[in-house]
Amino acid sequence: MYDIFDATEILFKALNIPEVLNSINGKLYNVGRPLNSQKEDIVVNTITITTISKPQLATSNINIHVKDIEIGNPNTKRLKEISRIVRKVFESNQFFGKSVYISDLGILQEQEQKEHYVNLRIQWRIYDTKEN
């Protein structure tokens, strides 16, 4: 059976390529990001996964963080550019033995960090069995 760490690692590996990394001035992070980051960062995490049924069902996030132009005014140009690159790479990736798709897309404000981020909500149906 897969767990949240496996799902996150699969997404991280899919995005850890020059096309994505060169689109941001920050880093790609697995699970969390430094609180004081002032950079354009991408964070991948998995929030739930079933453990007793087949197919396994999971929900993950890809969050693309970009500093505001000014407080409360998102840099929509950069959010759009980066999210389109990430979506293109994600949608062209083949996840063998799994149905993986973007179910929701939204822009959220992170007031304490003076930034906005695009959230790509990822839904999984995992049909294959994890090999240890």
Please tag this protein with its features.
single chain, 3 helices, elongated, 132 residues, 25% helix, five-stranded mixed β-sheet, alpha+beta, 5 strands
Average of per-residue pLDDT values: 93
Shape: elongated
Low-confidence stretches: none
Tally of contiguous helical segments:
3
Note the beta-strand portion. 35-45%
Instruction: Tell me the radius of gyration.
Output: 15 Å
Task: Report the end-to-end length measured between terminal Cα atoms.
Answer: 9 Å
Task: Let me know the number of strands.
Answer: 5
Specify the helix fraction band. Answer: 25-40%
Strand order of the largest sheet: 1-2-3-5-4
List the secondary-structure elements in sequence, H or E.
Answer: HHEEEHEE
SS-based class: alpha+beta
Biggest sheet, open or closed, and with what strands and sense? 5 strands, mixed
Tell me what the structure shows.
By secondary structure, the chain is an alpha+beta fold. 25% of the residues lie in helices and 37% in strands. A 5-stranded mixed beta sheet has the order 1-2-3-5-4, covered by helices on one side. The protein is elongated. The mean pLDDT is 93.
Outline of the structure:
Helix content is 25%, strand content 37%. With 132 residues, it is α+β, with helices and mostly antiparallel strands.
Write the layout of secondary structure elements.
Layout (H helix, E strand, L loop, with lengths): L3 H12 L2 H4 L6 E3 L10 E9 L6 E12 L8 H17 L5 E13 L4 E12 L6
Parallel strand pairs: 1-2
Antiparallel strand pairs: 2-3, 3-5, 4-5
